[in-house]
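Re: the request from the purification team.
They wanted to know what the chain is likely to look like in 3D before they choose a buffer screen. I agreed to run a prediction and write the result into the notebook, where they can find it.
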Amino acid sequence: MLVAAILDGHFKPGDWLRESFLCEELGVSSTPLREALQQLVHEGLAERIPNVGVRVAVLDTEDVIEIYDLREYLERLAICLSIKRRTVEDLIQLEELQRQGYAALQKNDLIAYREYNKKLHNLFLTIAGSRRLRVVTSSLQLQIEVVMARTILFPGRPMRAIKEHGDIIQALREQDAELAERLIYEHIRQAKEELILRLCSKE
């Protein structure tokens, strides 16, 4: 519940996660809540300030660059592996997700769009077929979701992103490894640059 509240923007970067307030709002006791807060800190979604408390993590430009650079490396590897292993059934699944994404945009349902986006990128990992790659990527999953949740709020970004996804899927269909790798790189770079630009404008 806490993760969803952060991704949905209910709790914003810098907001304090007070135990007494959260216990009452979520209807849970202090012990599981403390465990949940500790997990958020471990996953990078929150940060513990000594002698003060826990707050939603505030990402600066360096954090964003590091997260996106790691994501770029991992997803480029996933796409390269997917080129060799993708099946007709995989392509059908990707196309179905694209339909769901466009449907979410038509309804202006950004929560559904965010879920589509997450599923699509996770499917690239699944198609890649590397257990170790999935394990490594999962350690960054929530931090990736946090930055994704922010970028889809940028005007026009969701439509640009879904079109970029379509181009990547077409490259997978044609098994064009060089094109697919370049497209996933550009897709992630565009999102990174847009987020950094907005972060810098607030500094």
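For the purification team: Residues 177-202 form the longest helix (26 residues).
Please add any questions underneath this entry.
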